[in-house]
Amino acid sequence: MTSKVRAPSRYQRNAFAPSLIAAGTLFVAPLLLGGDWFLVVLFLVSILALIVAWFAIQARQWWWMPVFAAIAVLWNPVFPFPFTGPVWTAAQPVTAVVFLVAGAMVKVKRT
Hints:
Layout: E1 11-12, H1 16-32, H2 38-58, H3 64-74, H4 85-105, E2 108-109
Antiparallel strand pairs: 1-2
Helix pairs in contact: 1-2, 1-4, 2-3
Transmembrane segments: 15-33, 39-57, 62-81, 87-106
InterPro entries: DUF6804
Protein name: DUF6804 family protein
C-alpha cells in the first residue's frame, strides 16, 4: 500500500478560526435577541471583528478593514444601538456570512 505524502500548504489563514466562532455566534444570535445573553453576542462579535480586521491588515487586504470596523461599531456593547425588528434580525446571519467569506479569503503566504 502506498501512502501519499501531502505537501504543506503555502498559505496560512489566521482569520479562519475567529471567523468561525463569530459566524456560529451570529447564526444563534436571532434566538437570543432581547435577552440577557445578547450582551455576550455583542461582546464576542465586536471583539472578533477587530481580530479579523487585524489579520486582514497583516495579510495586506486592507479593504476588509472598513467592513469589520463597521461591524465592531454596530455590535459594540459599550454604547449599543437600539436596533430591533426584522432588519436587525436579518443582519445577524448576513454578517455571519461576511465573517465566513473573510475567514476563507484572508490569507498570508507562509515563509
